[in-house]
Amino acid sequence: MTQENALVIPRLIIGLGNPEPKYDRTRHNIGFETVDALARDWGLSWQENKRFQGLIAEGNAPRGQKIRLLKPLTYMNRSGQSARSVLDWYKLPAESILAIYDDMDLPVGRLRIRLSGSAGGHNGMKSLIAHVGTENFARLRVGIGKGREKETISHVLGRFTAAENEAIEKVLDLARKAIELGLQEGLPKAMSLYNNQSVELSPPP
């Protein structure tokens, strides 16, 4: 086992979301929003690649680590097709993935990194696991909070409140710091430092 594998350092960061403008900045698209923020902070530009059925940004993270960011344009429930194409083209193992996506079981203001696990009912992750053939890749879940019972779809496809948006900006910064640490020292170190951190929502006026 190489040192990089032992440290679990991602080489392909995939943000999950839906491509149409009507889904921009919805809760379900927080994966897209996170990788957009990474690309912006790291000075990387998105290029559409029809082979990958997605937008890809390649370059170096702040400490010089080679990294690729991916936004599948296949719609959420077929995200794995795009990921599989990228892995095959660059001959990357599935274990090199860090997938970023929304999680209703986490409150707004929280994020959680795991090195493997099930899809947990998330359609984008179900597709990713099915196409890459394993659950053994890292994921960063960003909390979007629970909606009212029977309103799950309208909740995930809805937008954050003003107070939540303020918290999400801080969460995206936390995510960037966690990922940068993961690229430098491995994701287990990032888990230990960032999984228990939280951003408090501002009280309503």
UniProtKB/TrEMBL annotation:
Record-linked InterPro entries:
Pept_tRNA_hydro (IPR001328), Pept_tRNA_hydro_CS (IPR018171), Pept_tRNA_hydro_sf (IPR036416)
The record ties this protein, via SUPFAM superfamilies, to: Peptidyl-tRNA hydrolase-like
- Specify the enzyme's EC class, one word: hydrolase
- PROSITE patterns registered for this protein in UniProt: PEPT_TRNA_HYDROL_1, PEPT_TRNA_HYDROL_2
Matches recorded under Pfam families: Pept_tRNA_hydro
According to its UniProt record, where is this protein located? Answer: Cytoplasm
Entry keyword set: Cytoplasm, Hydrolase, RNA-binding, tRNA-binding
What cellular-component terms does GO give this entry? cytoplasm
Q: Where does tRNA bind?
A: Y23, Y75, N77, N123
According to the UniProt entry, its GO molecular function terms are: peptidyl-tRNA hydrolase activity; tRNA binding
Q: What GO terms in the biological process aspect are recorded for it?
A: protein quality control for misfolded or incompletely synthesized proteins; rescue of stalled ribosome
The protein's annotated catalytic reaction(s) are:
an N-acyl-L-alpha-aminoacyl-tRNA + H2O = an N-acyl-L-amino acid + a tRNA + H(+)
> In this UniProt entry, which residues are annotated as the site Discriminates between blocked and unblocked aminoacyl-tRNA?
N18
Annotated active site residues, numbered on this chain, are H28
Under CDD domains, the record lists:
PTH
Q: Which chain positions carry the site (Stabilizes the basic form of H active site to accept a proton)?
A: D102
Q: Which domain of life does this protein belong to?
A: Bacteria
Question: What is this enzyme's EC?
Answer: 3.1.1.29
Task: Say yes or no: keyword Ion transport present.
Answer: no
* Task performed by this protein: Catalyzes the release of premature peptidyl moieties from peptidyl-tRNA molecules trapped in stalled 50S ribosomal subunits, and thus maintains levels of free tRNAs and 50S ribosomes.
Q: Which NCBIfam families match?
A: pth (TIGR00447)
The entry assigns this protein to a family as follows: Belongs to the PTH family.
Subunit-level organization: Monomer.
Its recorded name reads Peptidyl-tRNA hydrolase
